[in-house]
Amino acid sequence: MSDLDVIYLADRDNPDKVVAHACKTCRFVRCNEADADRCCRCKECGTLLPMPHDRRRRIGFCSQECEKAECTRRDLEWNKKQAEARAKRPRVHWEEVKSPVSNDGDNYFESIDEFVDDYLDQLESPEDFSLQPIATTCKVVPAHLDVGDALENAFERGEYHEGAYWSHEDELEAFVAEWNKKQTSSTWWANNDLIDWTGYPWLDHCPADCESWAPLRAEIERQLAEEARKEAQGVASGTPS
Ligand SMILES: [Zn+2]
Ligand SMILES: [Zn+2]
């Protein structure tokens, strides 16, 4: 019927009418012809996988190379999507940023950060030199106990009759208000406005694999050279640093 790895399930009374598609290898019924054909093939190269393999695992790989290739491709796609999402978010220029800065949730940056540290160590770069990352501004929320919530929760957790109520709430509120002021911890939430690190375009151009760091390397060296140039100028013109 076809070259596909598919069993065509037909209507008994209308043998020409295909009503479902199953994988020829594991015989599971799949959503459609394409899914049934893909079911027991290597996700990367399409090679038919031999039975038996783990039936619960819908799509496997024929080799470690294929699994790795698929992972890399997925990483690249993810990075591309992230870059597109970043491009759409509102931008502020880094000189205008007064709030703390966050790179939370950006694993890609974290891996680069580690690399940058290692690389700067190799270069014996100045101690305080650091690359400016792609990051967002933050909103800082100090640790804060909400008295209303706390009292309500206390009722919910204990066994009280419906009509039970607290009295002298204002006393507790006044106390907790003072107590909240003494809290030193805080939580940071990333805002969606992206900091525009003009002059630092490298992040979008670095692939996730560690062999292709050339653009980042070049950018670090450029920034280091810039720092050195500024310092030399300062010395030459006698500007105190
Ligand atoms: Zn299958
Ligand atoms: Zn394969």
Folded structure, characterized:
It is a single chain. This protein has 241 residues and is an alpha+beta fold. It has six helices and seven strands, in the order E-E-E-H-H-E-E-H-E-H-H-E-H. The protein has a four-stranded mixed β-sheet, with no helix packed on it. A three-stranded antiparallel β-sheet has the order 1-2-3. It is flat, with a radius of gyration of 30 Å. The N and C termini lie far apart (80 Å). Residues 200-207 have low confidence and may be disordered. The structure holds zinc ion (2 copies).
The gist of it:
With 241 residues, the chain is an alpha+beta fold. The chain has helices at residues 33-38, 64-88, 107-123, 147-157, 169-181, 214-236; strands at 6-10, 18-23, 29-30, 91-93, 101-102, 136-142, 186-196.
